[in-house]
Amino acid sequence: MSNTQTIGPAAVHRLLHRDTVCSVFSGTVAAAPTDLLCVTVAHERVDGSRREVFLEWAAKLTGLAAHPHLSPCTAVGLTENGRPYLAVGTARRTLADLLGEQGPMPPGQVRALGVALSDAVAVYHRAGLIHGAIQPSHILVGTGHHLQLTAYDVTAPVLAAPPPPSPYTAPEHLDAAVAGEVAASPAGDVYALATVLYAALGGRLPWVRHAREDAADPLLRAAPVPHVPGVDPELTDFIGAALSPDPRRRPTAAALRQQLTRLPLAGPPSYGRRPDTVAAGLLPRRGLRPVTVAVSTELAPYRPGRERVGLRPRLRSIATATAGVALTGALLGGAALATYAATNPESTGSVCTDPAALAGWIGEQLDEGTIVDSWCAGDGDYVVATVDYQGGSGGDGDGGHERLAWRIEGENLVAVGDCDDPSLPASVLEFIGCI
């Protein structure tokens, strides 16, 4: 008998991500077994008004006109036991990977990218949908560098989760992001798209610095967007207008497409040498929400397992539901995940005392890099490691070391790095450079 599980028409193969709201799997459908799918399924059943809200959103998504730069939605609906799910096409590489490997794009390619994506976003908006998390890691790179916007679950009311503030968060949504609430708007999508284009040019934004809190500083967001050396100023002027701190002064996605289409790029470039790398702060290695998966998950509610089977972490799209409205109340509630350590208190200690097992556990969290050294910290509640990146990451190309830390949650490792987290012990704060 086959052990293959199905969610709607999709056969799911491997758990990529799990949080308190949903699980994300890789999958395929019988009609196209070689096409990769990303399948998101909620943990909890929905009924009543939550069911109707989700189905209304699903109807809008399935009613979208086909667009070459929107990832196809293969299926969306409710499982037999009433759990919302969404299956969309995916790819192994993203624009973040491309920019990190190859550096900034030529201005003509960035203009073409802007025309394609703004047209796709305009189609999305005309259907009454809001994306809410446009960024390079949510833009797929297919055959021939064909680009498609994906991560539609970020606007599904019962699949959403609050995102932390990032350079792609529009200024009007910063307060909600800092407060752990969910907000999105069409103007916010335009802002995020303009940030993607500016990053692709190699631009350096005033609010993307070394300090993590700069991305949420409203005063920095009011600073003018500088021209990019070696790029026609008219192109950066159009992008800068879409990055206006006042959402009322930004063009719509459709208007931005028209502006970029008519732009000849015939003027002299701005003075100076063009950057040869994309700003590292615009290409975070772990994206907005790093996650850890330790067990293969059934479609039933979470139950702690007895054996840890490591899988590499993947990113799940995060957050938002309707225009300009915080939707925390619309999110699927639910208890925190049960922890393996609660029923197996000796399991963590055995890993901490076995260097090979600890290194293997940490290695599952890394997409790249070599572990130089690692150990348990904070009385065994945390794991820390020094990782060597040969040739660099995030587009800087310089290589070097990075100090990383994870909180042990049962049999999972959850990445930490917020210096303002009061729960972090002093030893971990000192190790990751907070103090």
Describe the protein.
The chain is of the alpha+beta class and 435 residues long. Among the domains are: 93-282, Transferase(Phosphotransferase), domain 1 (Orthogonal Bundle), CATH 1.10.510; 344-431, no CATH class. The chain has helices spanning 48-62, 95-102, 107-126, 174-178, 186-201, 218-221, 233-242, 253-262, 340-343, 346-352, 355-363, 426-431; strands spanning 5-7, 10-18, 22-29, 32-42, 73-78, 84-89, 93-94, 139-141, 147-149, 370-377, 382-389, 400-409, 412-416. The strands form 3 sheets. It has a 6-stranded antiparallel β-sheet, covered by helices on one side. Strands 10-11-12-13 form a 4-stranded antiparallel β-sheet. A 3-stranded antiparallel β-sheet has the order 7-8-9. Helix 3 packs antiparallel against helix 5 (186-201), helix 3 packs antiparallel against helix 8 (253-262) and helix 5 (186-201) runs antiparallel to helix 7. The protein is globular, with a radius of gyration of 22 Å. The model is unreliable at 286-349 and 391-398 (pLDDT under 50). Keywords: ATP-binding, Kinase, Nucleotide-binding, Serine/threonine-protein kinase, Transferase.
Keywords:
four-stranded antiparallel β-sheet, six-stranded antiparallel β-sheet, 435 residues, Transferase(Phosphotransferase), domain 1, alpha+beta
CATH topology of the domain at 93-282: Transferase(Phosphotransferase), domain 1
Strand order, main sheet: write it out: 1-2-3-4-6-5
The main sheet comes to: 6 strands, antiparallel
Cα-atom Rg, whole angstroms? 22 Å
Q: What is the CATH first-level class name of the domain at 93-282?
A: Mainly Alpha
Number of strands: 13
Can you say what the CATH homologous superfamily of the domain at 93-282 is? Transferase(Phosphotransferase) domain 1
Q: Determine the structural class based on helices, strands and strand pairing.
A: alpha+beta
How much helix, percentage-wise, in residues?
25-40%
How much beta, percentage-wise? 15-25%
